[in-house]
């Protein structure tokens, strides 16, 4: 069928743009185990809404696991080894997380991806993430792997300038996107989450982003 040519060489794999590959349902089988580990991470390092350097409280609630975690406060955005709430190291990166991130990166053509940071983003209906670039990592040659769990979201995928009009990409439970190469510094965001209830997560969307930050 000619339509299948729109999707890469494997059913469910789609190039959103050069360097940005969508792996539909790649995390579906692993999702229950991933969610158990998300719960364990949250128990040790609670979700919290961080404050931007400009003094605004972020809409998305966040926590981290891995050797480095992303934080924002009045001093700026950065990665650090400890949770500012507890002063303790972030929880270790669960083996399920590391394996999924590695395998997804490989499926997108990046061999040997070994993330040292996993940012856990929690959305509820109405929560949004404004257009931004991810620029706090050391090496933009490293890809970012993102995993969508729970309620669906509409992802905004822009260009290299904030003013480039973003495309809208629906992301559902189990979808994985690998962002690298020329897509690595593109502006992106998430539109306000629609009301809904997911069988595994209720009124939430959890997004995991894996990075080699340091
Ligand atoms: C495109 N998170 O944590 S994941 C973020 O759904 C973030 O929680 C969103 O943006 C979320 O920084 C989107 C998809 C994503 C992540 C990183 C990217 C898309 C990207 C980096 C470059 C280009
Ligand atoms: Fe981002």
Automatic annotation (TrEMBL):
The keyword Oxidoreductase applies. InterPro entries: Alkb (IPR004574), AlkB-like (IPR027450), AlkB-like_sf (IPR037151), Oxoglu/Fe-dep_dioxygenase_dom (IPR005123). Its cofactor is Fe(2+). Coiled coil: none annotated. GO terms for molecular function: broad specificity oxidative DNA demethylase activity. Transmembrane segments: none annotated. Pfam families: 2OG-FeII_Oxy_2. The keyword Metal-binding applies. Residues 114-214 form the Fe2OG dioxygenase domain. Keywords: Dioxygenase, Iron, Metal-binding, Oxidoreductase. Its EC number is 1.14.11.33. This is DNA oxidative demethylase AlkB. It comes from Roseateles agri. The lineage of its organism: Bacteria, Pseudomonadati, Pseudomonadota, Betaproteobacteria, Burkholderiales. The gene is alkB.
């Amino acid at each position: 069928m000619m339509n299948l040519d729109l999707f890469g060489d494997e059913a469910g794999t789609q190039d959103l743009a050069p360097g940005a590959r969508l792996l539909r349902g790649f995390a579906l089988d692993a999702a229950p185990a991933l969610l158990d580990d998300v719960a364990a991470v949250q128990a040790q390092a609670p979700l919290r809404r961080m404050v931007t350097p400009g003094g605004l409280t972020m809409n998305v609630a966040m926590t981290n696991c891995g050797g480095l975690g992303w934080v924002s406060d009045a001093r700026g955005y950065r990665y650090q080894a400890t949770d500012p709430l507890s002063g303790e190291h972030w929880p270790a990166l669960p083996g399920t997380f590391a394996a999924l991130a590695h395998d997804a990166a490989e499926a997108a053509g990046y061999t040997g991806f070994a993330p040292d940071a996993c940012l856990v983003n929690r959305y509820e209906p109405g929560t949004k993430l404004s257009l931004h670039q991810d620029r706090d990592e050391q090496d933009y040659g490293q890809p970012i792997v993102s995993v969508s769990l729970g309620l669906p979201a509409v992802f905004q995928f822009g260009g290299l300038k904030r003013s480039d009009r973003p495309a809208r990409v629906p992301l559902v439970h189990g979808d994985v996107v690998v962002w690298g190469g020329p897509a690595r510094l593109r502006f992106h965001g998430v539109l306000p989450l629609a009301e809904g209830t997911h069988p595994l997560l209720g009124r939430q969307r959890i997004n995991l982003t894996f990075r080699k930050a340091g």
